[in-house]
Task: inverse folding
């Protein structure tokens, strides 16, 4: 990922912000129950959660899973990655927080500044990780997709502007500005909460206006009754939260299926 197409442009350019930096709502949520089936390996200098598709899968389809600030090794995120893998994808989730994701924070951590502090090391490490992914798993037939939750959203937007992936998806994004949509060159799904202080209604509609003007291929999911973080840390004991989380994941898989046949 070149400097010119870096997620850091969100905080260093004058392009109007559409989805702001992670805030207090990003540090809360419910831990889910389940047994992950993937494994953790080092890839390109980053510990990576790897979940394999069923043995019967014949097409090489890869999902790059760019996590929220809870990290790709958080149980909820492992279970989502396993679900994507069960649908026929090799799923790769880099721990670009290097063990310093939210579940590992000590008491008293400065939550207001940490997301911005964590962004630069993640951005700096990502290109080598991506090259390692391509070297190990890439073939002439490999089709890459990318999904980004909150913190992971700008990585997906850059991958959707440089030709790396065939399609992208965002869930309750952060760190997004107008320039991301002005450079968008791949189909994009946006899975959004009606009530999201980081990506509220007016900026969301501005993003849609840009995509309409540029004749982009896009799809919005807008869920009422949930808030930022629902697609990862919603409460499964609350019916609307459980349903929205499940529909978000299902919609992302179906979106990627369209472009990986």
Result:
């Amino acid at each position: 990922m070149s400097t010119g197409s870096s997620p850091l442009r969100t905080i260093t350019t004058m392009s109007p912000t559409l989805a702001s930096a992670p805030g207090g709502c990003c540090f809360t949520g419910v831990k889910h129950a389940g047994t992950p089936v993937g494994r953790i390996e080092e890839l390109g200098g980053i510990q990576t959660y790897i979940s394999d598709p069923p043995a019967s899968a014949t097409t090489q389809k890869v999902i790059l899973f760019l996590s929220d600030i809870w990290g790709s090794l958080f149980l909820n995120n492992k279970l989502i990655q396993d679900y994507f893998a069960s649908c026929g994808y090799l799923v790769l989730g880099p721990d670009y927080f290097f063990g310093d994701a939210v579940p590992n924070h000590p008491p008293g951590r400065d939550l207001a500044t940490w997301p911005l502090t964590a962004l630069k090391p993640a951005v700096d490490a990502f290109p080598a990780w991506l090259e390692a992914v391509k070297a190990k798993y890439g073939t002439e037939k490999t089709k890459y997709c990318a999904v980004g939750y909150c913190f992971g959203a700008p990585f997906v937007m850059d991958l959707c502007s440089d030709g790396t992936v065939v399609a992208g998806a965002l869930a309750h994004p952060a760190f997004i500005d107008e320039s991301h949509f002005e450079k968008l060159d791949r189909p994009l799904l946006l899975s959004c909460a009606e009530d999201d202080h980081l990506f509220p209604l007016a900026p969301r509609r501005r993003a849609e206006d840009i995509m309409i003007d540029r004749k982009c291929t896009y799809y919005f999911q807008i869920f009422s009754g949930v808030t930022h973080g629902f697609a990862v840390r919603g409460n499964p004991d609350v019916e609307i939260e459980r349903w929205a989380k499940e529909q978000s994941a299902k919609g992302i898989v179906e979106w990627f299926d369209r472009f990986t046949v």
About this structure: The first strand starts at residue 17 and ends at 19. The first helix runs from residue 9 to 12. DSSP finds eight helices and ten strands in the chain. The chain has a mean pLDDT of 93.
